[in-house]
Design brief:
The protein is of the alpha+beta class. The chain contains 9 helices and 12 strands.
Length: 275
């Protein structure tokens, strides 16, 4: 469509009239109040990480649209993927005040999902990652899925057992809160001639492994090189691969609530590993 662009990235489907050839406008008349300010705050917070991953530049924030620098695209190669992995580790290293803390300049909960079907993203600061992940990620999405009839009572018990183990700190590894993208599937990485650029965040204080697990869940170009670059910048403990599926529980539950399909089964299968 001449003069229009559609972006179907993790932040949702947005259609906006483009002000110029150098500006990409994300617009939505149905987005809740503050939605674009929330995204802009997340982008600015991620961009403020010293030496971190590149972030798309915000030009203007309004109530019904967000203007960004329009990016050009390129096919990623292993060197670009490795550099992105190292830069992502530096973004995470910039830290956050607590697990669940919002990005600087934002107060209250955030949003996650398509613009036409946004879900609340709890952002109450907590000291324990396990407690945060159970109470603000797993249990709210489980409740929404149960309300939709996606799980039987016996299924719910499996998730609740995982939540109790999280609340008891069984999966806490002592990592400090990281500055995470929060919705880092491969569609929210724009590969440009200059390298990877982050877009469409749900930024908050979380566990660094959450971003890595999200990338692994839906696939990422040259994944092994991304991980290699990351580990070259920031070493993870030897058990981190065993926790990947645990971090994937939340995005799978979100997809179950939004899209149904086989996501409820996939979420339940992963939950059974950690009950």
């Amino acid at each position: 469509m001449s003069g229009w662009q559609v972006c179907g990235c993790g932040g949702g489907l947005f259609v906006g009239e483009q002000p110029s050839s150098t500006v990409f406008r994300k617009g939505s008349r149905s987005a809740p109040e503050g939605y674009f300010r929330w995204e802009a705050a997340g982008l600015a917070w991620l961009a403020d990480a010293p030496g971190g991953a590149a972030v798309v530049e915000v030009l203007e924030v309004a109530e019904q649209h967000l203007d960004l620098v329009k990016l050009s695209f390129a096919n990623p190669d292993p060197a670009m993927a490795e550099a992105f992995g190292a830069a992502l580790a530096r973004t995470h290293d910039a830290g956050a005040p607590a697990f669940g803390s919002p990005p600087a300049g934002w107060e209250g909960d955030g949003f996650l999902g398509p613009a036409t079907q946004l879900l609340p993203l709890g952002l109450t600061p907590e000291e324990s990652w396990g407690s945060f992940f159970a109470e603000q990620r797993i249990l709210p999405m489980l409740a929404a899925a149960v309300d939709l009839g996606l799980f039987h009572r016996s299924d719910r018990v499996v998730f609740e057992r995982v939540a109790r183990r999280l609340q008891d700190g069984e999966f806490d590894d002592g990592s400090a809160p990281a500055r995470i993208h929060g919705d880092l599937w491969s569609g929210n990485i724009a590969w440009t001639p200059g390298g990877a650029v982050l877009i469409d965040p749900a930024a908050h204080g979380g566990h660094r492994e959450t971003d890595l697990a999200m990338l692994a869940l839906f696939g990422c170009p040259h994944w092994d090189f991304v991980v290699g670059g990351y580990l070259g910048q920031h070493r993870l403990d030897g058990q981190w691969p065993e926790r990947v599926a645990l971090h994937q529980l939340h995005p799978l539950l979100v997809h179950a609530v939004l899209f149904g399909s086989d996501y409820p089964r996939r979420a339940l299968d992963l939950a059974r590993r950690y009950r």
